[in-house]
Design goal:
0% strand; mainly alpha; 11 helices
Length: 354
């Protein structure tokens, strides 16, 4: 927060040093309204040394307010230790109540900040897992495309095989025709023997060509069969990899589901901590009404009040702390409204919760 103007800053310092307790109270309330951390050291000095319990109580509440809005975790810890030491020796009931509520508020603030950090870490991990799943899905899509390309290649090779088979049939028909011609030449007269021999040579050359092409076709067929076998093996390998990727995706989906459940539980705990803050304000407000009640009512109320603030959220857990604080607050309400037996019954039931 920006620093106040020089005149207003000096004016507040003068009021803090004024001999009138009312003037000092006005200055502290104005600092709290402005939420100005510049006066932190002055407020600590007033809390330690001011002769007026009311002024010291107001300075303690203002320090807590600054902690909620501006101060670091280290300063919050220092305030807790300071309030705890002072509360042990304090004789003013009102100041003791203020210190107790301030200590609890600072402790709850630390727990809330810790919970928020945990929630941020969970959110970051969830985003990382979502990115991993997205990358796995992209790899699976790429493998599907490769599988499709292999299938197209196999189909193309099949078409080439069929074409080679058609050519082979044509060559076989030509060979049969040439053989028929050779047999016809043998039937001719001896005078045409030389001519027949020439035809035989030509036929032999054609047969050689046909045989060469046939051998080439058979070799190609074997090669194509080998390619098909390799492609089938690759397809099986890709299918195995795809199944592995699917298993990984299912695992990450289950993990994301667990993270969602943890996030819901975390949000529920934060809501209960906020409600406990409201409970704290209400029981502190009821403490003022207890001051004018009879001795028995006031003693039992303070018993409920102390039990409420003695609950440690970190050691008891948010769920149990919430139930106990609510039970002690209900008992405090009932005893102030004149329903002492019901209040004592709820107090005993709440005390037995584990």
């Amino acid at each position: 927060m920006a620093r106040n103007s020089s005149d207003n800053y000096s004016h507040l310092l003068d009021k803090l040093k004024d001999t009138s307790a009312e003037k000092r109270l006005e200055a502290i309330r104005e600092i709290r309204q402005n939420c100005d951390p510049e006066f932190y050291d002055y407020l600590v000095a007033i809390f330690k040394n001011d002769p007026s319990p009311e002024v010291r109580a107001e300075s303690a509440e203002t320090l807590v307010w600054l902690a909620l809005n501006n101060l670091s975790d280290e300063i919050i810890q220092d305030l807790r230790e300071l309030f705890g030491q002072q509360q042990k020796d304090e004789k003013s009931v009102k100041l003791q109540a203020t210190l107790l509520s301030s200590i609890v508020a600072l402790k709850n603030l630390e727990n809330l900040r810790r919970l928020i950090k945990v929630q941020d870490n969970l959110t970051a991990e969830s985003k990382k897992d979502e990115e991993k799943i997205k990358r796995l899905q992209e790899r699976i899509l790429n493998n599907e495309e490769e599988k499709k390309a292999l299938a197209e290649q196999i189909q193309k090779l099949g078409e080439e095989i069929n074409s080679l088979k058609d050519n082979s049939r044509e060559k076989e028909q030509e060979a049969e025709k040439l053989i028929a011609d050779i047999n016809a030449l043998k039937e001719k007269t001896k005078q045409e023997k030389i001519k027949s021999i020439r035809w035989l040579i030509v036929a032999g050359i054609l047969l050689l060509v046909i045989l060469t092409e046939t051998i080439f076709w058979l070799s190609s067929q074997r090669k194509i069969a080998g390619i098909q076998q390799n492609n089938i093996q690759k397809i099986k390998e890709y299918e195995t990899k795809i199944n592995e990727y699917k298993t990984v995706i299912y695992t990450y989906e289950a993990k994301l589901k667990d993270l969602g459940i943890q996030k819901t539980q975390m949000e529920e705990n934060i809501r209960k901590i906020q409600e406990m803050e409201e409970m704290k304000k209400e029981i502190n407000k009821l403490a003022g009404d207890a001051l004018i009640a009879d001795d028995e009512t006031r003693k039992f109320f303070m018993k409920c009040h102390d039990a409420f603030f003695n609950i440690d959220i970190q050691s008891a857990g948010v769920e149990l702390a919430y139930k106990k604080k609510k039970g002690f607050l209900d008992a405090a309400r009932l005893v102030l409204s004149g329903k002492s037996p019901a209040a004592r019954k709820i107090y005993a039931q709440t005390l037995a919760l584990k």
